[in-house]
């Protein structure tokens, strides 16, 4: 059975073993004979964080459910920063989905609560800029043009970017400030000295961005490639020119490194302390093993390499040994 909740409002009095059971994606799965650890009925793994990483975790969680019927996996979309700040570093979840690396302030918060985050890479994404299919005047944007559009006090109308484009105001949709996608877009496109504009529709719900862009000829948005790949006929992906010509976002261009600067790694962070729980150990091992397979590409991302998988599994086993010794 599977249910979804993309809200982040959860009562602080609820324990981390319970809060996502009622407010997440509940995945029931069967116990695999290949595991050396026998998980008991009622065990649970609690996950919050990035909406970008959510499709990967959901797909792998569904596969996990087929082998581990006694373990419940609950997932909530809270944004990377919301997941770290409100749940993971507060000791209320076992794993945080993250579309960027954990920040120093978040590491400090985790440390104050005796939470040790273990970083594991699960995929590569091609962050995608999208417009309405009827916006036939734009198929490619330079990074500088993107910066003009999305910076505070920047361009207001399409014609501000190109005199031949419509004299119409932008209708902009993008990631909320709690999102790792927001942070990555800021870093890759705007840079340290430029602020992201605030007069746009900010949301953690990527499907809201799809709906908004689909509904207006002058709209633009950005999100993870997976959400574009689900809707290629209702929105149009814009190629990006980083100085070497226009490159379309795709699994292939992200894998080859051609799609710059918007290719990015995706992560999960597992609390080292949670690895003392058999269910969390089983799920995390399963996740990293499957992150190098077609399960990841099927949801629109690039799987990790076998070398990276083995590197992360080694780090994971070292952490497990330390907490179970």
UniProtKB/TrEMBL annotation:
MF GO annotations: phosphate ion binding
Record keyword Signal present: yes
PBP domain segment(s): 39-288
Keywords: Signal, Transport
InterPro entries assigned to the protein according to its UniProt record, in alphabetical order: PBP_domain, Phos-bd, Phosphate_ABC_transporter
Origin superkingdom: Archaea
PROSITE patterns per UniProt: PROKAR_LIPOPROTEIN
The keyword Transport is annotated on this UniProt entry: yes
NCBIfam families: ptsS_2
Protein's name according to its UniProt entry: Phosphate ABC transporter substrate-binding protein, PhoT family
